[in-house]
What does this fold into?
Amino acid sequence: MSRSPASADTTAELALTGDLTRPARLTVPDLLAWPQHEADVSFECATSGTQHHRFTGPLLHDVLSAAGPVFDPARRKDRLRFLIAVSGADGHHALLSWAEIDPDFGRAPVLLAATVDGALLDRAGAQLVLPQDRCGARHISGIDAIRVDGGYASWA
It folds into this structure.
């Protein structure tokens, strides 16, 4: 899925797709309706050195859980085979495992940031924020798509 970056007079959208019972299109105003979490983050950026920012937004786990990932309810660990692919309007991509964000496993407080340093990201689009990462490479700006994929049932 691709789209051009949002223009100055539009609100950016991100598409939740993949193995979900309730795929959706969300904007920053939609994300603001979720419980907000704050993260003061420092990370190294290859092009501009160490960055320090305060992000707010809902947890990625909460938003994706509400979209209904198609886990097999008879198998508690079925969710561990799911991957999450995040892409930005600028062509950057990141891949996470469900286990990273799941409270029963990695419990990483990954945000879908709606604000950075107090400024709304409604025109630029939500940002993926991984407070635990030392490097900022997986901080995807202007998210346009998040795909949940459970197609890894067997490697045999």
The chain has three helices and eleven strands.
